[in-house]
Amino acid sequence: MKIFIAQPIQPVAVEILKKVAEVHFNPEGRPLSRKEFLKNIGDVEAVILPWHTDVMDREALGIAARLQVIGRHGVGYDNIDLEAATERGIYVTFTPVLAPTMADTTFALLMAAARLIPQADRFVKAGQWTLGGEWVPWKFLGLDLHHKTLGIIGCGRVGAGVARRARGFDMRILYHDEVERPDVEAETGAKKVALDELLREAEFVSVTCALNERTRGLLGARQFAMMKPTAVLVNTARGPVLDQAALAEALQSRRIAAAGLDVFVEEPIPPGDPLLGLENVVVLPHIGSATLENRCKMGVTVAEDVVSVLTGKQPTYLLNPRVREVRPLG
Predict the structure, then answer these.
(1) Could you say which DSSP state residue 178 is in?
(2) Given a cut of 80, is residue 330 above it in pLDDT?
(3) 2-96+292-326 and 98-283 share one fold
(4) Which of 1, 224, 285, 307 holds its CA 20 to 30 A away from the CA of 195?
(5) Once rounded to an integer, what is the mean pLDDT over residues 255-283?
(6) What CATH number matches the domain at 2-96+292-326, 3.40.47.10, 3.90.400.10, 3.10.129.10, 3.40.50.720?
(7) Catalytic-residue membership of 324
(8) Which distant-in-sequence residues (6+ apart) come within 8 Å of 43 by Cβ?
(9) What is the pLDDT of residues 301-319, one digit of tens each?
């Protein structure tokens, strides 16, 4: 059997895979083009996708005629056609173990954007801190998080983790989701509200929803106009959930106060993008889950589930449970 890993994962995970199959790696040392990606999956039983830009659509699934399992090294699965995979009896797994780390990153971005942490860091490192006293605090007056209202858009595993962290700051928590989360409400005091109400009332807005046809472009100029001028927006979900041009305009005009972004419509974000020229934006290169401990955990999780499917056993984290009706496993 052969397994293809489209981008690097931790060595501990690779060793697990090698016990049952021949492991093949991305040979280019960079993200593959579509043509290169398709060339590498023609004769494999398993594909592991560490990044969301390698797409397993109907074309790719048709080329990978021997495929038994797709392992998504992450939680977003907008790059996988679940319906087509299920029709072909292909199991699709993912790694929701990253949720606590993602919640940490989300809250870190909230704090960094609110308290002007990157701006102050650049100020000191540039040798500009030449005077002491009250002058410096006036230059970096940020916003408190404690006792403010946090709105969470998408209250799944990551969103729930953000809510738990917010409780430590005595924040009032609102959330918008397609389903009610009574467990999160009981634990954190969160209240489910309509999206417009959340945007009007929240001082901080955290976007942690999945990207799909219902959420693509969910927040645009109309939604940004509803938000408080002191509002801080953080997105650790997917770039296309936001209208990025409208967000840049809202930030530039100070319609909203600040933003913290780990994800973008195009990744890497082009050097000339308007967001990169704004002082009230904190940007990260899509590293929300990037801690050593978490990446090892994600790698082991995806490897173990891929091995389970290849050896006829049920995986732990399955995205398309209907596949069991098409191709049952022991």
Answers:
(1) S
(2) no
(3) yes
(4) 285
(5) 97
(6) 3.40.50.720
(7) no
(8) 2, 66
(9) 999 999 999 999 999 999 9
φ, ψ of residue 212 in degrees (nearest 5)? -150, -175
Q: Known catalytic residue: 59? A: no
For residue 238, indicate whether it is catalytic.
yes
DSSP bridge pairs for 92: 70
Which pair of tokens denotes residue 267? 């990744």
Q: What does pTM read for this prediction?
A: 0.95
Can you give the residue ranges of every domain in the chain? 2-96+292-326, 98-283
pLDDT, position 294: 98
Mean pLDDT, residues 194-207 taken together: 98
- The answer to whether residues 82 and 55 touch, using CB atoms and an 8 Å cutoff, is no
Residues found in the chain: 330
Active-site residue, from 88, 255, 286, 295: 286
Catalytic residue among 87, 201, 249, 267: 267
CATH of domain 98-283: 3.40.50.720
Q: Which of 238, 255, 295, 304 is catalytic?
A: 238
Query: In the predicted model, what is the mean pLDDT of residues 21-33?
Result: 95
Mean pLDDT of 279-303: 98
